[in-house]
Amino acid sequence: MMVVEPIRDPEKLTLIKRRLRRRNARHFAFFTLGVNTALRPGDLLKLKAGDVYGEDGKPRDVITVKAEKTGKTHRIKLNDAAKEALEALWEAQGPFEPDVLLFPWTRQHAWRLVNRWCREVGLTGNFGGHTLRKTWGYHARKYHGIPIELIQAKLGHTTPAVTRRYIGITEDEINDVETRVNL
Fold it and tell me: Would 134 disulfide with which of 6, 73, 178, 181, CB 3.0-4.6 Å?
């Protein structure tokens, strides 16, 4: 199994979202939910319309997802970006029956899509389904200052070391911290 990277550059992240929003509401929703919920790709692919939309067609404030890998149930608060993407999907392709899969793809197809979207904006490296989840963790720490222990809890990792490795903290970043903390 190939190890994939997060999308580290916020400008590239924004560019991908902007391009997907114009081209395909379902792709936009998948990408945006992925980077905003930190769900594993398999759990994203199992989402049904009834999981994320209320009877009125509006996105729910909180969704409940049973993780395929661990069997644990997670309550996830949908932020404004996730709700906006779901609203765009409903407008473009709804209304949906509650038991319809939002993303009726295989994991391999999702991997190819994420890889293609990253390449289209000039990113190099290894990208795939877990890129979205890793991107959430990376940006939470790097750009929002969220402590690694909270990211660990959100991602369900056993130790902070696992989380640091998972989200791709590089030696250059560690060196940068050593330079900035100049007491």
Answer: 6
